[in-house]
Amino acid sequence: MVIGSGSARMGLRDLVKRSSGISRSGETSRARTVSISRRRLSRQYYILTHAGKLVFASGENEQVQSLMGVAQALVSIYAAEDDRPRSIIRGKSRISFLLKAPLYLFCVSDWGEPEHVLRTHLEYIHLQVLSIVTSTQLAKAFQRRSNFDLSRLLEGTEHFLHTLIKRAQHDFSYLTSSLEPLRMAPSLREAAAAALMPPAKFRDLLYVLLIASGRIVTLLRPRKHSIHPSDLHLLLNTLAASPTLTSSETWIPICFPKFNPAGYVHAYISPVTEDITLVFISADREAFNDLQGWKDIVVEKLARDQTLSRISQAIPLHSYSVSAVSLPGLYHFIYKSRQSIQITAPSWEPPYDGAARDRLITLYQHLHDSLHAKAGQAEPLRLVYVKTQHEACLGWMTKPFELYMAVSPHLSKAAVVSAANAVATFMSKEEARVFIKDAPVF
User: Which CATH superfamily is domain 186-317 in?
Assistant: First the structure.
């Protein structure tokens, strides 16, 4: 679609304002009604280049074609005026944008979630692209040719994006920029970390991870810096999207955008058992042989005192029921340790499956939005209470933790607050099992 200049551009902009309602950064948000009874459609995600070429689409082809013209027109309007829209609300749907030249990303959703949720998803999609094609490579490719076809460069990697999108729908660790480690006895985690302590000769070694069934058992890092949760999410998503990476010894380049968006680090990936994988991250592209030799030593240490078998036994015990709290009327909760930047939650149990789970997650997202002032309100809140015909939900933020909780709608507010205190007390006793405390450094 070709966009004219002058009055035509302003006319379309005014039309969008009148018919859709645009929310921008800095504006005071207004409460939206969250539908809690209907079945939601799958969110649709798209990536365009600044020349309007489609790079990726999670939706059906006919949906793509009907949206491309509108999206390209809106991007052209606001990019030309250096005005970046956050989202457009049209009917029950929200269209959220993320402009990261030379790429433009947008998402269409009718879930009724806060704007920040979709932008977080788009941020992760952009980071996943950068994990494959660095920012430097992107810039050079589009400098040489403004209509560069990025889809060809990403061909064969679409499954990484599809897997990321699927994981982000219901995994609250993406929204809270946190991790959910494998739950286990702290002594077992310490034993695993001791076996993974690297020798001093590996000067370019950045991170050492032990992963079991897609969850981190322990993580060792250099004393001088930590790893950003989003980079860890990209690594875990890459492993989840490609089972071959965890079925045979692999040496791959990967970009950690929060660490260095312009270059690659190198990951040595070695399966130890069917469910347990060692990952060594190094800045040295020639470190494969040295890391391979050290891996044999690590595996021998892990096997020597039955650490490996004990970790295997811990995998099916990771999930726990909300009934473990022994609190009548408690339906579900998500607990985040703000100090360790990690979360835990009981399993999704009936009635929270299917549409009911989507509904509760959306309510949690609104609580998170209010606690962190993501929608532009004057200041964050410390306590938020929402009640529906199905449940009452409480969001509570303190210095050490955040709590998102669903209880029976028949409980009084005083009983809800009492339940929140009971969950916090329960988690204070369980933190050593569910979180990685005092991660080892080298």
Answer: Dynein light chain 2a, cytoplasmic (3.30.450.30)
